[in-house]
Amino acid sequence: MITLHEVYEQGTEPVRQAVQAFGDRHPLTPADANAEPDWKTAEKHFTHLVEVIMGTAALRQPHPAGTIRRAENEAVQLLLTLNTVPNYRCPICVKQRRGPL
Ligand SMILES: [Zn+2]
User: What domain range includes position 34?
Assistant: First the structure.
C-alpha cells in the first residue's frame, strides 16, 4: 500500500499541499496547532483511510492490486477535497476520539 510520504513524493503541487495540511492536522503537541506534524500518526491515519475506503469486507478476501490502487487514489482525492474545507478535522482522529476533548 502506498504511504503518505510516497503520495507527497509522487504528487503534484496541490497534492503536496493536501498532504502537508493532513500532516498539520496531527501536531506532535495536540495543544499547540503550530507544533511540528506528527507524521507517524498522519501516516497511520492515511493508511486507515485507504482501508475504510476499500471496505472491511474487501479486507477479508484477497483483492487485486487494482482495488488497492483505486482506494489509494480515492484517499488522495479525499485529502484534496478535505483541504478545501477550512480547519477540517481528520476523519480518523474524529472517529477515534472518545469523550469530550
Ligand atoms: Zn488523524
Answer: 4-96
CA of 81 to the centre of ligand 1 (A): 15
> Which pTM does this prediction carry?
0.84
CA distance 35 to 26: 9
Distance 88 CA to ligand 1 centre (A): 11
Q: How many domains does the chain have?
A: 1
Dist CA 3 CA 71 (whole Å): 13
pLDDT tens, 26-63?
999 878 767 899 999 999 999 999 989 888 555 556 76
Q: Is residue 101 part of a domain?
A: no
CA of 12 to the centre of ligand 1 (A): 22
DSSP type of residue 33: T
Q: How far is the CA of 4 from the centre of ligand 1 (A)?
A: 12
